[in-house]
Amino acid sequence: MRVLLSAVIGLWCIGVVFGQAASKEKQVRQAVQRFYDAFSSDNFGRASEYTTEDWNHINPVGGWTRGRAAVLKEVNEVHSSFLKGVSDTPEEMAVRFATLNVAVVTVPSRVSTYTTPDGVRHVNERQIRTFVVVKRGGRWLIMQDQNTVRNR
After folding, report:
1. C-alpha span between 112 and 119 (Å, rounded)
2. How far apart are alpha carbons 53 and 67 in whole angstroms?
3. Which pLDDT tens digit goes with each residue over 86-137?
4. Which of 45, 71, 73, 82 could lock onto 57 through a cystine, CB 3.0 to 4.6 A?
């Protein structure tokens, strides 16, 4: 009887742990998806709900912008000009937990056609972005992202 009781308790504990892990991963994915939804709608107005105040952004050409206010200034400028109406669609999301409160998310995606200010036309471009997502104040928030254009 003790063995059976121990087995039942053990299975219950495993179920609780996996359920919590699945819930955490879902919340991390939601934060990242909110970024992509904002990108594709040209509306970063609710960024404080899914990014940290000290958000860092590294753009595809190597620019490094620090702090939510500065990042929002940059993304709003490009989304009101050459990225206006452009969509970025994730192909998948790979979530890995570095600690209980830190996740790294890798997202390959496809960006719709756009032309940069220097006249270069980008058609069906593939990109890959890495996010560092942290749990602060009970919420999962993007703390950093880096975007790279993929050659393949």
Report:
1. 16
2. 6
3. 999 999 999 999 999 999 999 999 999 999 999 999 998 999 999 999 999 9
4. 71
- The CA distance from 71 to 54, in Å, is 9
Note down the domain range covering 41. Answer: 2-149
The residues with which 53 forms a beta bridge, in sequence order, are none
Cα–Cα distance measured from residue 39 to residue 33, given in angstroms and rounded to the nearest whole number: 10
CATH number at residue 48: 3.10.450.50
Record the tokens describing residue 96, joined without a space: 């890995």
The contacts of residue 141 (CB under 8 Å, 6+ apart) are 31, 50, 51, 52, 133, 134, 135
Q: What is the total count of domains within the chain?
A: 1
Place of tokens 């993929």: 150
Place of tokens 């609710």: 46
